[in-house]
Prior knowledge:
This protein is an all-alpha fold. The chain has 4 helices and no strands. Helix 2 (31-58) packs across helix 3 and helix 2 packs parallel to helix 4. The chain is elongated, with a radius of gyration of 15 Å. It holds the Pfam family DUF1145.
Amino acid sequence: MMKFIILAGKAVTxxxxxxxxxxxxxxxxxNIGLLLTILLAITVVMHSLQVLIFHTLFKSLLPLSKAAYLxxxxxGVFSLLDYRQQVLASEK
Length: 92
């Protein structure tokens, strides 16, 4: 069940990234376009903080690659949950 929630969350997050980035290429008129631009900035900041959290928490528990950091930057908390599941499974 948790795996499904993580995958669904990643899909929704990827869609949101697509909408926000598309707004940079073809801006939506009015307040919606401005809101999407602000949300993109907030998302970049929040996901960057999550990469920092990821590095701090998981560097001693898992071998981390550049792809792992990129995945956390793109999918945020859903990637953190995925890596948390990996750590918990390896401890059993």
